[in-house]
Every structure is written in structure tokens, then in C-alpha cells.
Design a protein that fits this description.
Length: 198
Amino acid sequence: MSPAALEDAVLLQRVGTGDEDAIEALYERYGGSCYRLARRILDDAQLAEDVIQQVFLALWQGTGYDPRRGAVSTWLLSMTHHKAVDAVRREGARRRRTASDQALLERASAGPGPEDETWARWRAERTRDALRTLPAEQREVLLLAYYGGYTQREIADMTGLPLGTVKSRTLGAMRRMRDGLGGLDDTERAGGVGDERS
């Protein structure tokens, strides 16, 4: 276990006892990364701040983090991603409710149809399933790169791993994902989602 991960584990134990200094230390360490991710997804500073507050509140309340599934940084970024996507959906629903009938018609005609949405949901489900099959150390670097948008060098700095280890884990993860998602592109779509599942 890297020194940073060990220190995170100690801080988490202290958070579990209600130590406010420990949650502040984790916020100082990862709050900026989480905020940048939320801001990139939401394109709204206030909504991004709200998401980060929700993420660190969840950490404070002791909900969800499982050390066997990866580093604290990975969990925080994954939580940030999920909550930011939820916020995008909520904001979109709020805007649709307050929009005029004409604006709703224009948005509906320009947006994806039911078939496109079904395909996107199915593809996302397959991707999540493939991610779950990865070993924790490979999943961690892939999530940091994909959800966090970090370079391999930044991931090495965050996790305390050698750069070569990050590179080999990323490559291994990408190969496993490619094998697990073989054929998952628009050519497969031509045969229909139902064909793949039958």
C-alpha cells in the first residue's frame, strides 16, 4: 500500500470517529480534483460546488466507501461523477419544466430518439459490467484516467505508484475492456440490441 493510501486509511478511521480535521485534510487533498471533474461535467460552478458538498457529506456520514474496491481518490471521483451526472439530469428536467411549449418541441425534435437512448443505456450497462470484471488496481487507474481526466503521471503522483506500474495497469485494463466489449460499436447496433442479448 502506498504511503498516500495508508495515510488516507488513517484519515478515514479518524473521520469515522467524528474528527473534523480528518475530513478537512481529505477535502484539501481531493476536493480540488473532484471540483474540476464536477465543473467539467456540469459547466456550472455553483452546481459543481453543491455536488462536492454532497460527496464529502457522504464520506463524513460513512456511506458507501469500501477500501477493497480501490483508493479513496477513486471512490471520491466516481461518486463525484455519479452525483454530477444526476445533477445534469435534474437540471435538465427543471429547465424542461420551465421552458415554453415551443422550446420543448424544438428540443424534442433535435434530441436523440428512443432507439438512440436505449442503445446508449445498453452500451453504458455493458461498459459498467466490463469495469466490474477488472482487478481493483486496474479499475482504479482506469477510473482516474476516464472519470478524472488525469494523465498517467498525475495518477502516479496521486496514488504513489511508479509511472511504469500505472502505464502497465492502464494497458492491461484497456486490453481487458476491449476483450469484454468486443464488437460494442455502431456496427453491432445494426443487428439490434435484442440480437446481442438473445
